[in-house]
Every structure is written in structure tokens, then in C-alpha cells.
Amino acid sequence: MPPHHTTLHDNFDVDYVIVYRFADTTKAEASERFRDLVQALARVGLATEVRNGENCALLVFVKVASDARLNNAVYRSRVKDWLYGIRSAQPDRETQNSLTSQPLTEAERYRIVHHLITGPKEEGNAGITPKQGQWKNVESIFPLHDHTFNKEWIKKWATVTFLKVEDLDEIRNRFGEKVAYYFAFTQSYFAFLLFPAAFGFSSWVLLGHFSSIYAIVNCLWSVVFIEYWKRQEVDLGVRWGVKGVSAIQEKRREFQYEKEVKDPITGETVQVFPATKRLYRQLLQLPFTVLASTALGIIIATCFGIEIFLSEVYNGPFKSILVFLPTVLLTALVPTITTVLTEIATRLNDYENWETTDAYDSAMTQKIFILNFITSYLPVFLTAFVYVPYGSLIVPYLDIFQLTARPFAENEKQLATPQAGFTINPARLRKQVIYFAVTAQIVNFAMETIVPYLKRRGFHKYQELKTERAAKKGGAASNAAANDLPEEAEFLARVRSEAELDVYDVSTDLREMVVQYGYLTLFSVVWPLTAVSFLINNWVELRSDAVKICVEMQRPTPYRADSIGPWLDSLGFLTWLGSISAAALVYLFSNDGLGPDGTPADIKGWALLLTIFFSEHIYLVVRLAVRFAISKLNSPGMQKEHAERFMVRKRYFEESFGEDAMELPPPMDREKITRSSLEEEARQGSMRSSTAQDHFWLRQRSWEESSSIGVGLIEKMAPAESKKQQ
Questions:
Q1: Half-sphere exposure of 724 toward its Cβ, with a 13 Å CA cutoff?
Q2: Could you tell me which residue ranges the Anoctamin transmembrane domain spans (predicted)?
Q3: From CA 417, how far away is CA 326, in angstroms rounded?
Q4: Are 388 and 347 in contact (CB under 8 A)?
Q5: What is the DSSP-derived secondary structure letter of residue 688?
Q6: Residue 368's closest CA among 571, 185, 567, 578?
Q7: Which is nearest to 307 in space by CA: 381, 373, 383, 384?
Q8: Of 533, 463, 542, 557, the residue nearest 115 (C-alpha)
Q9: Nearest CA-CA partner of 432 in 477, 381, 466
Q10: Comparing 54-68, 430-444, 556-570, 601-615, which segment has the lowest mean pLDDT?
Q11: What span, in angstroms and rounded, lies between the C-alpha atoms of 407 and 428?
């Protein structure tokens, strides 16, 4: 086996660390469960070491006990891939030869060891599921960071603009395909943003806002990007050897079957939950969508009305301060309601009783996307399609929000809503889009990087103060490092620090990119510089996410994937909706970008619907054309796949028929034909019984004679013209 990579602070060949916490468990029960844990690990060939942890916890260090055990697990994993069609060729039965031709990456090693720890017992694994059942004391299972690689990674990325495919290969080899696909998508998105950024800047200078030309080009760009990324996913899947890996479904432990039936094809006993019953449960998504839309819609619409009243109607003291009241309300209420709705979505997803982890995650992603769609885009939709066309009709009814400013008003006149002559603020929509394209991106960056850093520093400072206070009182705070050996002290301090970090969830970062893409497709026609802002943000985002993984999060378990999952469907939906939204915005704001001035009189419903209809159908036609064109293009991934299939066919042919199956048979020894030899041949023929078929096939005894006689016949029967040409 190849040795572990030597890190800046040696990881002592540790594969995984298991945090076993027993603060809320009796000593007897904690001891018994801990023995079960160590025995379960030992049964599957894993060696363990135990050290003190923080706050009533033990650190269980795990590694594979022998190379033979790891080699066997690697061979089983690769054979399973071959049986499912992920690998084109059967792995070599000699595992060492297989590892020589296809070396074991860190990600593959960690994935296989993690499967030994958490995989089902029926498949020869330990079956340890953190925080569930008999393993409720197992708090977390995580691999350790390679700090040498982390430092080189951050340093390298800080000096380059575009990532090469080799950089993505390195991420895949370290953190697995699921994380690598996120960085590949973000890098492709970043590279594609160069065109809309340049074109958007030109449109901002030359064409102005709400340009139909910009809307068409932006929609075409969105279609090309999505179709290109679909091809890119396939290429990367072939390059990384994970194409079709989603076919290997991991069964959920929480799945509850209703009956067991015998598979008519395989003869195996299969646990079944009726699809119709799950469909009935899925129908609950409809009231959930209504509930989420209503709850979040009421809050956002209310704050929207308050903001309009305070900024455009109220004209009294403290106006410059009161205009921030809606922001404060949104900041306080939306996350709270979103948390409640997310909990409801999780319970609903559990109730749907999905059999596999992939199906469960896909259904959960759809529900989370609904919540993010409402919270992210509803404010802009309200401004564009409610405030702008119907502002003059709505504002007179905003006097219900007088309560928000009444304590500060000097007289009723400052609170009175205009009954006529109100004019909307034409710059409101543009300012709102600029906020989400620039300010919100900066705020999200701060929440992702700066706030966790400050929280971590504050926690460490609190621990230090607690220790000092205990020392002053004559006591001593419990110190997990008190009995550490000197040669292990630095290593154990780092492990305890990593154990306190949060678990990295790549879906969170993917969701952020998808939401950002939605702003670009839906509303960038309002402010063409949107892509410029996103281009700058995403360059920083790629580097900050790398820092986040290396510094602020535990090292992610290297899960496999062959795409970005259900988020691809969300991107397709936003692209389709963007074709409609952009067309509607261009129509509404075609009056030099001022819109219909707050009155719906100038809006012709039939014209708006016709615009949307043609825009959507043009989008569908363009998508088919782009998809067809891209499918005809060759790519490195497709070439590699064709080459692998050819080599498999060639190998099978050679193994079945021999390497010389297509070679000519050796020439026969030519004997001199004499009278005696012909008489002998005739005598031998008369001695054995022969048929007309035997005589037919004995007239020419080799391919050489057939060739010679054939050439002679050609010479005799060839036409005169052929002879002249010769």
C-alpha cells in the first residue's frame, strides 16, 4: 500500500476520529456502549486508540489494521463499481496489480474506511450510525485535515485566476467527487460570466436599462451555459471514473417497509413500500407550498408595504432612521419563519419514507428550493409586477401602516397617504436589484467567513477566561490535555480543535450559487452590471470556500457523485422562468426604463401575455437547438469513454480467441509435384471413403493455392481494356 501523505503536523496514520460523548449517560451504560463500539470496529479489521476529549468525551482514533484488509475492501468496492457499469473493465484479481495501474487516492481510501465504519452489518461493515439507536453517544466521525496540502492549496489559488482541470483533480483526490463537482461548477460558472459581464457593461454604457437586445443575449447565454454544464458533468464523470455512480443507491436506515416480496428476476427478498402510498404523502407538498408562500409572503409583503409607506409617504421626524424598520423586521422574522418551515419540510420528507439517501436528499432539496425562491425573489417580484404597474392604486391604502411612524409624527399631515397624484419611484427596482447583486453578496461573504471566525475566537477566549477564573478560586478547570504525552500534545490539541468545528455541507454552497444564478437570469435586465458584480464575487467565493473547508470546517467525508444533483433541475427551472421574467420586464419598462408610471392604464394584458408566450416558446426552440449542437461536439471525456470501451472489446476478443486470432495461418510446406506424388495422392484418396464435398475442398489445399489459382483465372478472363491498362 502507498504510505500516507506526510503532513506538516503528522497525523500518525489516523484514518478517522470518532467523538464519543457520554455527558448525559450513566457510567455503566457509557462503558458498555463504548465496549460495543470498539468491538464493532475490531470485527471489521479496524485498529483503535483512545485519548481524552473535551467536555466528557473520548477521542477514538481509527485506522485499518492491515494492508490486506484494506486491499480486500478496495477490491470489493471496485468490483461492485464494475458490476454496476461504473468501471468499464473488471478489476485485476491481484489487488496489488490493480493498485499499481489505478493508484488508491486519499479520497478513495477515506471513503472505503468510512464505509467500513458506517456501512450496514449485512455487508460486513460495523454499522455505526452517529446519534442513532445504540450509537447515540457517537457524536461525529471525521477525517483529519492535511495541513500541508491545505496551505499549498490556499497559497496556489490566491495567485491564479482560472483553475485548471488538474486543480479540480486534486480536489477530487483529496475531498471526493461531491466537493469537486461544486468547485467545477463554480469555476465553469465563473468562466462563463466573463461574457455577460463584458456584454452587460457594454449594454449599460450603450443600450441603457431594460434593453431587449440584452435580454435576448442573456437568455441565450443561460441556455448555452446550462447545456454546456450538463456535458461537462458527463466529461468529469468519465475522467473521475464515477459516471453512473448514482445507480449505486445507499439504503436509508430510517426506511420503514410495509411488506417483503420476492423479486421475480433475482429471487431476492425485497422490502417494499407502496409507491401509491408515497405519492399520497407527497401530495402534502401542495399545502406545504401554500403554507410557506402564505407565511413568508405575508411577512415580506407587509415589510414591503411598510418600507414604501416610510420611504415615499411619511414625511416626518426620524424618517432616515425609520426606513430601516422593514429591514430589521425582515432580519428578525424571515429567518425564524424559515427555520420553522424547514423543520416542517424535514418532517414531511421523513414522512414520505424514501428508501434511498439520494431520493431523500433530492426531495429535501426541492422543498428547500421553494423556501429560498420565496425569500430571495419575492421582494423583487413585488416591486416589478405589483408596485410599478399598480403603485398609484395601492399607495392610498397604505395608511394601515401609520402605526409604525405615529409615535414620531408631529401631525396627521405627515402620515396622510396621497389620494391622487402619487408618482412611483422609477429607480426603486434598480436599487433593489443592485442591493441583491452587490450588498447582499458582501453580507453573505461576511456571514460565511468573518462571523464564524469571530465566534470561534470568542469561544476560545471564553474557555481561557473560565480556566483563569477557576485557577484564581483555587480550583482547576478540567483539562483534557493534562495527561497528554509530549510527543502527542500538539497533535491531540489540533484534533480537539477540529472536533469542535462544524460539518461542511456542500449543498449550502451550491444553493448559494443557484440563488445567485437566479438573480442573473430573472432580473439582470434591470441592471446589466449584475454579471460584473457576480464575476468579482465568485472569484473571491472560490478562494473563501477553500479557506472555509481548510480552516473553519471539519474535513469533509469524500462522498461520490456524478453531478451536482437536483440543483441542476433548479438551474433549468430558473433559466426557463428567466426567459419569461426578462420578456415581461422589457415590456413593462419599455418606456425609457420608467415603466407604466404606477398606473395600469398603459398595460395591455393581451400584449403582455403574447410577449410571454412567444418568449417561452422561442426559449424552448433555442434550448433544443443548443442541446443538439452540443451533443454533436466531441470532448475529452467522450473520447476517453470511447477509448475505454474499445480497449474492453479488444481485451475480451484477445482473451476469447487469442492474440493471433486475426493472423494468417502459416504457409504449407510446398512439395515438388511429380508423377509419383500424384499417383500416391490418388491411391490415398481411393483407400478412404470420400464424398463430393470432400473432393471439392481438397482441390486447393491452402490459402496460397487459392490465391495463386484466382490470380491465374483473372489473367485469363480479364477484358482486353483491363489488359491494356495493365
A1: 3
A2: 171-643
A3: 18
A4: no
A5: S
A6: 567
A7: 383
A8: 557
A9: 381
A10: 601-615
A11: 27
Residue among 294, 296, 293, 301 nearest 380 (CA): 301
Find out whether 69 and 512 touch, Cβ atoms under 8 Å. Answer: no
Q: Quick check: 429 and 525 in contact, CB under 8 A?
A: no
Residue 709 corresponds to which amino acid?
A: I
Q: Report the C-alpha gap between 439 and 453 in whole angstroms.
A: 21
**Residue of 640, 645, 571 whose CA lies nearest to 235:** 640
From 435, 647, 608, 518, select the one nearest 226 (Cα to Cα): 518
Cell 441556455, residue located: 223
What are the cell numbers at 632?
454533436
The pLDDT tens digits of the residues spanning 337-377 come to 888 888 999 999 989 888 888 888 889 998 999 988 988 89
Amino acid at residue number 509: D
Amino acid at 176: G
Q: Which residues contact 379 (CB under 8 A, 6 or more apart)?
A: 300, 304, 432
Q: Give the Å distances, CA to CA, from 84 to 43, 76, 81, 242, 540.
A: 28, 12, 5, 11, 39
Distance between CA 117 and CA 20 in Å, rounded?
14
- Counting other chains too, the contacts that 658-666 makes at CB distance below 8 Å and 24 or more residues apart are 664/703, 665/702, 665/703
242-276 pLDDT, tens digit each: 888 888 878 888 888 888 788 777 777 777 888 88
For 91, 94, 333, the CA distances from 101, given in Å and listed in that order, are 10, 11, 57
Taking alpha carbons only, the member of 560, 561, 489, 556 closest to residue 143 is 556
The length of the chain is: 726
Amino acid at 663: E
Phi-psi map region of 61: left, alpha, beta (phi>0 left; psi -120 to 50 alpha): beta
For every residue of 59-103, DSSP letters joined together read EEEEEES-HHHHHHHHHHHHHHHHHTTSSSSPPPSSHHHHHHHSP
Q: State the cell numbers at 10.
A: 503528522
Q: How far out from the chain centre does Cα 82 lie? A: 23
Instruction: Please give the DSSP secondary-structure letter assigned to residue 403.
Output: G
Q: Which three cell numbers stand for residue 210?
A: 431594460
User: Which three cell numbers, joined as nine digits, stand for 691?
Assistant: 464424398
Q: What values do phi and psi take at 48, rounded to 5?
A: -135, 150
The cell for 76 is 470489493
3-state SS of 264-306 is: CCCCCEEEECCHHHHHHHHCCHHHHHHHHHHHHHHHHHHHHHH
d(CA 411, CA 405): 11
User: Of the candidates 73, 98, 78, which has an alpha carbon nearest to the alpha carbon of residue 88?
Assistant: 78
- 547-556 per-position pLDDT tens digit: 899 988 999 9
Q: How far apart are CA 261 and CA 276, in angstroms?
A: 17
